[in-house]
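Sequence only, no structure available. Ideas?
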Amino acid sequence: MDGRPTFRLHRTPTLSTVVFRPAAADRLDPATGNALVAEVRRRLLHEGTAVIGRATVPGPAPGAPEDCWLKVTLLNPEAGAADLEALLDLVEHATDRAAADLGDRHPAKEA
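Reply:
I predicted one. Tokens follow.
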């Protein structure tokens, strides 16, 4: 994910699970940002392009509501960097479409 300002890692992965969210979600109020992340996941699933898990993480401030994140577990030893880049491209495109549908006027590619 280095070099991709359209995503934010929850933390550096230590195993095969990567938890991240579109940076566009951070520019919205928490409820709308979480709705954006959930919609991205749903779109990819319904389109049949990717199956991505969901994770909830405590909000940034004490007592803040939980944030919705995307979770990818990499299990295929044959997967290479090009496969991962293609997956991130799918997530970026789904984010742009979902943001437009949610009324966000700041597409994911504007960081």
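Residues 81-101 form the longest helix (21 residues).
Hope that gets you unstuck.
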